[in-house]
């Protein structure tokens, strides 16, 4: 069973309302079956405490005077540079550089966002935009250099995919404008627009001579936080799997919908919640997601920070710290007419009823949604080499379980509600606030506090100190300095280093050859060539049950790399060139042959990975080819079948996610430790 998440609506609020109502309907049915009542009137707000620090009014005036002095100095510098610098300067760019240099000296998360960055942040926060649902990028040659044309790297289900667009298509024009030499962001702007308007595109498809034309209607494109939910393994075991890849405003609603569908007939015996490569998002969404698993009234997270009382009412209204029913009680924070003074705040967020629209009123959805008897396993990871988004081979980033994901994982671990499997997470225990500034749509994002898990630990792994060159320096907390806290069952957990898993499990890492091929889009380019040769049967093969990448296809891929990537530059080539130059300058030119021999040997080792890592490379090539024909959910379910950390196809492997979710005794053993003197050495470091 795969849950259909192809939901469409006018805006993000509508989609949230829709999935909450559907989740609520299913949950009410389950509640009636199991004799539980879950409907009441209203929810209680989080508990907020503020400890004001008495300030000296004279000192406050001196601070304001210093700020004005610095502003005047900055303005004077800008005027002099604009009027007297040897070349004309871009004042906007210069100012933005100054802002970012100032803010980046504090921590990596405090930054100035121009109009474009602010709009992108809005898309990430609300999880939608007006457009057609395409992922585009410029392909690269064997040297990693961008080519002039625009490739369609992916099409979203329910949008451009349903209209017939596929990965591998080459975009030629948008509304009559040739896009060949345009930057990707400019082409993206042409495709986006007000919902209800139309856009005409012309594109070519590999293997088809005729240019294709299509008129697409722009709509609100919903970026799903839950791309996949399904039952896995033996049907009788009743084990579900859900992938949560973000925390936008509708994350909890999407997750609630999937869980309600998975347990619509009967409670699940186990559920695997996959938080790998989830970099986080809204604090409020993390709290609402936790509501789905944690009993009502239990702590989820506590935030602590520093505020200026006279600005609290306006600032926190724009912050992640106060939205909807989680809004801070401002009456506790400030009184009108008071002088500005520094205050500290502490807000405790608990699992609370979620108010859901029902006609002209609202009903309270009482946590938890997931049946308390269901064994919950959470997958987490740290920074790995991977690709961002779907399915964009040209976009390479490092992601991990971080921020809002760690809030959820930390709450579940501290309350012994889930077994955490994987690697120690990133360790981001800081909370940021967005605040609009100026009149042009710009904003700043700055750190306003730290968060603490229910046991009292802050999992922030690094401290930030200003370095001598003005840039922020980082310093990891030593293991010996980390404090020990305890879960509800008395299990020891540590602060200042991310969420350490209950069962440590290292994922397989890609080989150097696979990384290099990915970096140069070689998998994607070969898949496009394969598509040209399989115009008639390609789609049937990609949707079929048998592997597309046979031994013959793999050999063809090797030949393609050797021929088309003849200028293939290995990961060490530039370093060896620098070594050769240094040797020449030092008068050791006779060592040139040794360097060349080393280069040949390294190249041989690199290409030898075609045999050494054959299985992994074939798997990646299989996905690349199928991505040209099938939607994201199919690719994710296909990848899950071979996931070494889930392993629902290998039931004999212990301490994998599926085995833990299936085995009640082993699950309880992991969560049942009560000896506070238990060693932490078995935990991941």
Automatic annotation (TrEMBL):
PROSITE patterns: PDZ. Coiled coil: none annotated. GO terms for molecular function: endopeptidase activity; serine-type peptidase activity. One of its GO terms (biological process) is proteolysis. CDD domains: cpPDZ_CPP-like, Peptidase_S41_CPP. Keywords: Hydrolase, Protease, Serine protease. The keyword Hydrolase applies. SUPFAM superfamilies: ClpP/crotonase, PDZ domain-like. Residues 130-192 form the PDZ domain. It comes from the Eukaryota. Belongs to the peptidase S41A family. This is PDZ domain-containing protein. It comes from Guillardia theta (strain CCMP2712).
């Amino acid at each position: 069973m795969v849950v259909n998440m192809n939901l469409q609506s006018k805006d993000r609020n509508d989609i949230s309302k829709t999935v909450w109502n559907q989740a609520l309907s299913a949950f009410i049915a389950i509640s009636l079956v199991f004799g539980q009542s879950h409907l009441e009137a209203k929810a209680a707000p989080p508990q907020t405490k503020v400890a004001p620090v008495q300030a000296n009014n004279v000192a406050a005036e001196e601070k304001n005077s210093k700020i004005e002095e610095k502003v005047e100095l900055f303005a004077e510098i800008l005027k002099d540079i604009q009027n007297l610098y040897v070349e004309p300067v871009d004042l906007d760019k210069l100012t933005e550089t100054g802002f970012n240099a100032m803010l980046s000296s504090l921590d990596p998360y405090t930054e100035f966002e121009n109009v474009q960055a602010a709009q992108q942040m809005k898309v990430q926060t609300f999880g939608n935009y007006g457009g057609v649902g395409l992922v585009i990028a410029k392909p690269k040659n064997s040297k990693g250099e961008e080519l002039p044309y625009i490739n369609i790297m992916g099409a979203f289900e329910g949008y451009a995919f349903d209209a017939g667009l596929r990965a591998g298509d080459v975009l030629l024009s948008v509304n009559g404008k040739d896009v060949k030499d345009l930057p990707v962001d400019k082409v993206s702007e042409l495709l986006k627009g007000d919902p209800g308007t139309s856009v005409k595109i012309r594109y070519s498809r590999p293997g088809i001579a005729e240019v294709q034309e299509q008129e697409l209607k722009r709509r609100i494109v919903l970026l799903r936080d839950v791309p996949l939910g399904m039952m896995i393994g033996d049907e009788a075991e009743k084990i579900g799997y859900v992938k949560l890849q973000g925390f936008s405003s509708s994350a909890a609603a999407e997750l609630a919908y999937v869980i309600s569908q998975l347990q619509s007939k009967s409670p699940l015996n186990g559920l695997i919640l996959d938080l790998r490569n989830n970099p986080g998002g809204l604090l409020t969404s993390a709290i609402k997601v936790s509501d789905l698993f944690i009993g009502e009234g239990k702590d989820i997270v506590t935030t602590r920070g520093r505020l200026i009382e006279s600005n609290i009412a306006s600032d926190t209204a724009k912050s992640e710290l106060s939205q909807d029913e989680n809004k801070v009680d401002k009456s506790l924070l400030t009184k009108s007419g008071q002088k500005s003074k520094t205050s500290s705040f502490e807000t405790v967020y608990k699992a609370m009823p979620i108010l859901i629209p029902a006609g002209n009123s609202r009903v309270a959805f009482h946590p938890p949604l997931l049946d308390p008897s269901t064994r919950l396993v959470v997958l987490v990871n740290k920074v790995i080499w991977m690709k961002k988004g779907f399915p964009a081979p040209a976009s390479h980033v490092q992601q991990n379980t971080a921020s809002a994901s760690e809030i959820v994982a930390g709450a579940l671990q501290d309350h012994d509600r889930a077994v955490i499997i994987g690697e120690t997470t990133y360790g981001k225990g800081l909370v940021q606030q967005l605040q609009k500034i100026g009149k042009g749509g710009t904003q700043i994002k700055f750190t306003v506090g730290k968060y603490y898990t229910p046991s009292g630990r802050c999992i922030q792994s690094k401290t930030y100190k200003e370095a001598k060159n003005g840039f922020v320096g980082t310093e990891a907390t030593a293991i010996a300095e980390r404090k020990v806290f305890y879960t509800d069952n008395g299990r020891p957990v540590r602060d200042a280093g991310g969420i350490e898993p209950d069962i440590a499990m290292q994922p397989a890492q890609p080989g150097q050859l696979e990384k290099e091929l990915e970096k140069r889009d070689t998998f994607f380019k070969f898949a496009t060539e394969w598509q040209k040769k399989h115009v008639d049967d390609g789609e049937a093969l990609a949707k079929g049950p048998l592997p597309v990448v046979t031994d013959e296809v793999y050999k063809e891929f090797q030949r393609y790399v050797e021929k088309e990537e003849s200028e293939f530059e290995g990961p060490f080539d530039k370093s060896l060139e620098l070594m050769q130059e240094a040797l020449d300058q030092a008068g050791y030119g006779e060592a040139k042959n040794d360097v060349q021999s080393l280069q040949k040997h390294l190249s041989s080792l690199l290409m030898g990975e075609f045999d050494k890592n054959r299985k992994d490379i074939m798997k990646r090539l299989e996905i690349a080819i199928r991505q040209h024909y099938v939607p994201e959910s199919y690719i994710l379910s296909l990848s899950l079948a071979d996931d070494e950390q889930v392993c629902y196809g290998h039931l004999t492997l212990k301490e994998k996610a599926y085995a833990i979710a299936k085995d009640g005794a082993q699950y309880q053993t992991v969560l049942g430790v009560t000896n506070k003197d238990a060693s932490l050495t078995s935990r991941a470091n």
